[in-house]
Amino acid sequence: MVFISHRSADMWVARQIAREIEACGATPFLDEAHIDVGADFEEDILNFLERAHELVVLITPWALDRPYVWAEIGAAWCRRIPIVGLLLGLTPTELQTRPGAPVFLKRRNLLPLNEIDTYLEQLAARKRQ
Asked: Which member of 8, 38, 57, 90 has the greatest number of CB atoms within 10 A?
């Protein structure tokens, strides 16, 4: 399962990412599709993060202010699962020089959204193994 972390303002883009992940043969987790209205949101997020094989985080300038995005990145890091940051509206340098940015988000983990095909090709190859 690939957990997709994003801010609600980026939902349309997150849906497109989920669709592409599914086309690779992987199962995407997207909160709007998998958490029922009225459910214990935080508990459900933790449960899905515990089962995820990797985390894809859509990093936009406005997502940087969302505590859940940082918490989800931290949870994935603690589980030692792969973290792939897809950058939209930011460069790797802008993210890494931002005060408070996690030091474990290295350049090799960050891709401009326009280069998502690199990640998707690797994901599809992993699913074929």
From this structure: 57
Spatial separation of the C-alpha atoms in residues 49 and 28, rounded to whole Å: 12
Q: What is the pTM of this model?
A: 0.88
Instruction: List, for residues 18-66, the tens digit of each pLDDT value.
Output: 999 999 999 998 866 545 455 555 777 788 899 999 999 999 998 888 8
Mean pLDDT computed over 10-17: 95
Listed residue (34, 32, 27, 33) closest to 54, CA to CA: 27
Confidence (pLDDT) at 6: 92
Fold of 7-128: Rossmann fold (3.40.50)
- The residue among 67, 60, 70, 68 whose CA lies nearest residue 105 is 70
What is the DSSP secondary structure assignment for residue 119, as one 8-state letter? H
Kindly state the DSSP code that residue 53 receives in the 8-state scheme.
Answer: S
CA 76/CA 88 separation, integer angstroms: 21
- Domain spans of the chain? 7-128
